[in-house]
Design goal:
344 residues, alpha+beta, 6-stranded mixed beta sheet, 5-stranded antiparallel beta sheet, 18 strands, 31% strand, elongated
């Protein structure tokens, strides 16, 4: 097992940053720690790195107890959000820094640096300084520097958070390919659901210092274990059990205190009433490019969003103020007990 975390807790004064977290990250996997600000994901990453000590619990790296092992003995590479490059050193010198500290021979350093410059696709930029690079290029240098010592575990804390949307999108695909090439156990922190879904083999959803769910991107999205996971991962409509919105084939009894969670993509719209369809009124139609967002409200007053493909929208010929009938394809129902548990 690449990383094993057993019942780890960490508090800062009265604030419980990590609360009895246990987690297994398989060797060679790319794992995302995903959650809102204050959920504990960066603190957990720093505990794995040895930059913070847990109040209780243990951390194993590649089968060895690393709970109290110094950072320099953990065989990890760490990449920070803001690069932390040496401004007075060139790209080559930044990448070589950790190898120089280990007193590796000059020839081996030169060979390793050349190899990493090729790996992160910065050919011809070895003699530039960080100020002469774009944000995306500086982040690639930071990754190359972390990989220079051939770590067994690579940790990335919001690696693309300081970059604009277009650069982040490009670097996601690049990071996925880089991970495939180097095949090192990697954990990265993000609050961006799309980033986690696109890049990670496995996602760890965190909330208030605890792990809500661990699974593949499809498992997290299609089979959310808690109300928090479903509301945090992707868009969702949350309706009272009294709304009458129930998916066809899922006619189980729903209590008025329950909450019905419904993805905007999982709704069919009809012009005429059909079995189990619920009437609604269209308020606004928003063109988002590849899809159309239809804002409507049920006759009971609850607002809803529905996402349609352009083809379905053109076929339905919808207009504002129109009365329609909606039928969910699938819903997730959480009881009052589940909702209370999610908020404590």
């Amino acid at each position: 097992m690449g990383i094993s975390i057993h019942n780890v807790s960490k508090s800062f004064g009265s604030f419980h940053a990590i609360d009895q977290v246990s987690l297994e990250c398989q060797t060679g996997k790319l794992v995302a720690l995903l959650g809102p600000s204050g959920s504990g994901k960066s603190t957990l990453l720093r505990i794995i790195a040895g930059l913070e000590q847990p109040d209780e619990g243990s951390v194993y790296l590649i089968g060895r107890d690393a709970t109290y092992r110094p950072v320099q003995e953990r065989q990890i590479g760490f990449v920070f959000q803001h690069y932390a490059l040496f401004k007075h050193r060139t790209v080559r010198q930044n990448i070589a820094f950790a190898l120089e500290l280990r007193k590796v021979t000059k020839q081996r350093i030169a060979n390793r640096v050349d190899e990493l410059i090729d790996l992160v696709q910065l050919q011809g930029m070895g003699d530039r300084y960080p100020s002469q690079l774009s944000g995306g290029q500086r982040q690639r240098v930071a990754l190359a520097r972390a990989l220079a010592v051939e770590p067994q575990v690579l940790l990335l804390d919001e690696p693309f958070g300081a970059l604009d949307a277009k650069v982040r999108k490009d670097l996601r695909a690049w990071l996925r390919k880089l991970h495939h090439d180097v095949n090192v156990t990697t954990v990265f922190v993000t609050h961006d659901q799309e980033e986690a879904m696109e890049v990670a083999d496995e996602i760890v959803v965190m909330n208030r210092g605890r792990v809500e769910q661990v699974g593949t991107p499809s498992e997290i999205y299609d089979k959310p274990a808690t109300p928090f996971v479903m509301s945090f991962i992707g868009p969702v409509n949350i309706l009272p059990g009294s709304s009458g919105v129930v998916a066809s084939g899922n006619r189980s009894r729903i209590q008025s205190s329950d909450r019905v969670f419904l993805r905007p993509h999982d709704v069919a719209i009809y012009h005429e009433p059909i079995d189990h369809a619920v009437p609604a009124n269209i308020h606004r139609i928003i063109h988002l490019g590849r899809e159309i967002q239809v804002e409507l409200s049920l006759v009971s007053g609850e607002p809803m969003d529905v996402y349609l493909s352009r083809q379905d929208f053109d076929r339905l010929n919808l207009i504002p103020q129109q009365r329609v009938y909606i039928q969910p394809k699938q819903v997730k129902v959480f009881s009052e007990y589940d909702l209370v548990g999610a908020s404590t």
